[in-house]
Amino acid sequence: MSKLLTPKTILAIKDLPLAAKAIVDGFLTGMHASRMKGVGLEFSQYRSYQPSDDLRWLDWKMYARSDRYYVRQSEIETSIDIQLIVDGSNSMQHTEDGVSKMDYARYLAAALGYLSHLQGDATGLAVMQSAGMISLTARREAQHMARFYYQLEQLQPGGRFGEAHQPHLMFSGPHTRKLIIFISDFYEQQEEMFKLLESMAAMGHEVLTFHLAGNHEMQAQFGGYQAVEDLETGEILQLDGKVDTDTYAAAWRNFTTRISNRLMEKQIHYKLLSLQEPLDTALRDVLLQRAKMRR
């Protein structure tokens, strides 16, 4: 991974669309352009012209050679809707090495939205908070992406993860099957996250989850602290002496294993991302899942 894509470097770019472009461009430099098909990129194949086809996609060079009409079959013909869901709860304020979970989620969602738009897919956004759900229906227009970035820029964590009483309302649009990308630290009170994710999988959507956590959080590096606070409940836990790192490590493994196993049972993709990890790490997973859906 490029050092230019480390969270601290990227978060120094205050213009969110520009940061998203930098992340995606840095990621794509390491890939062969021929693998990236879509609007403005390489088409996948030719097929015979049909009366309902857009004339702009006719290939006149092929016509000159064969005296038959052919259409460049772009990947846009198999584009999908991508719905990003961001955990907006108070625990996303957790910060390590100058990077908060919310900022990491904000920039990651922006990069995924930029990549989605680049591929010709419709992009939607939902932010889950107990105060209410912010939702943008998936669209492809450039004006829509401006609203998408604006909502991410304005996002402030607060309260708990809200319950989606009617999750299907998030998924209105021209396509019935969607790629859902869920970004969270997976701190919940009454399995509200699992209920949402499992309901989306039951609707037939492909679901990818990215679990954000800091290295200090994962390794019990609480040196110098006398107490820690649960950011969502306000509960204070006193740290009497040294934290038993072995016990903590086992508890953390149990926590993440439980999440992973439960999601895998529902065929939901799970990926743990460190706040210290380059932001392009998740992009490959998304592209692979998108390609799988189009087969």
UniProtKB/TrEMBL annotation:
InterPro entries: DUF58, vWFA_dom_sf
Domain of life (superkingdom): Bacteria
Cross-referenced Pfam families: DUF58 (PF01882)
Ranges where the DUF58 domain occurs: 45-241
Entry-linked PANTHER family: BLL2464 PROTEIN (PTHR33608), DUF58 DOMAIN-CONTAINING PROTEIN (PTHR33608:SF7)
Name of this chain's protein: Uncharacterized protein DUF58
Species, as recorded: Chitinophaga dinghuensis
